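fyi for ur records
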Amino acid sequence: MPRQKRPSVEPFHAMDILAEATRLRGEGRDVVSLAVGQPAHPAPKPALEAARKALEGGRIGYTDALGTSGLRAAIARHYQSRYGVSVDPRRVAVTNGSSAGFNLTFLQFFTPGETVAISRPGYPAYRNILAALGLKVAEIPVGADTHYVLTPEAIEAWERENETEVAGVMVASPANPTGTVTSKADLKALSDWCEAREAVFISDEIYHGLTFSGEETTALEVSDRAIVINSFSKYFCMTGWRIGWMVLPDDLIRPVECLAQSLYISAPELSQIAAEAAFEGIDEMEEVKAGYAKNRELLGRRLPELGLPLAAPMDGAFYALCDVSRFTNDSMSFAKQMLREIHVAATPGRDFDPVEGRRLIRFSYAGSYAEMETALERMGDWLGGKG
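which gave:
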């Protein structure tokens, strides 16, 4: 008799929508995808050139588990130049995208059965990875009353209600899907609360560089004990290169290195070479960001006019989270119907919020301005027939 397997985690519905959009494209359909956080622009030119030269050299192999010395030093310089924060390159761990950073963090700092607090709405992979590792998740609602960010008071209220203490707190700023930027004061309040409680404080900063409103603060400005996770995927448009990094406290470098050695050996050397050179392409990436800003203005103005009011401020990242309750109480069916009938892909809110997600849908504005215009035109005609 086959052994009973562990239950599967919840599907990542954005990827399911992307798969269906890809299938329709394969049939020759003109699909406009606003479903996933996939920048339309390629990696910066210096990164592409460095990768080309490395491939011509012919030898790409393993590196140290924590990454090449050149890339770790470049990341450390980035913190000094962008934030004025001094980081020893030894504290930098290069990872296979931010996803590997999440895995390493959750495995290293928590034991099965412990509870980690995240915001709701929030990035679904947090919830799914934690669940897959046998950890419990405290999904704490955020809204206008908490400025759309986690607060110590909200966490304590959850603890009292559930008679459970959290072992760690994970925040994202700018956040997916809300776009919320957590202020320096709010980051410090959470960090201080975690330190007083001996809880782990984790800051997901993969959308740094893509802040349009509010102050962009790295957790390293408020704490030496914070675990910071970042990636080249979003700002540097390098999603497919699968390259990210962590910044760790001194005493935790070696434990994470030992875990990374067995789980991943190392991040791909080719991607590390390209990532080191990517820092030379900041001007190019700022031009890309300016394009996002135009898309943001367009969606921020037109979506409410179409009857899709914003459910959170579009402070950063490249997402508009909207309330679709005027048209449906099932955003999953709504997203599937919209893709099927007008070939516009968006992500249903069930990914981000198991409680209120039925009334939410997320649009990514990481594509071109022309794609935004086309999607809005199709949606305007389509929604007009539903009003």
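The mean pLDDT is 94. thats all i got for now
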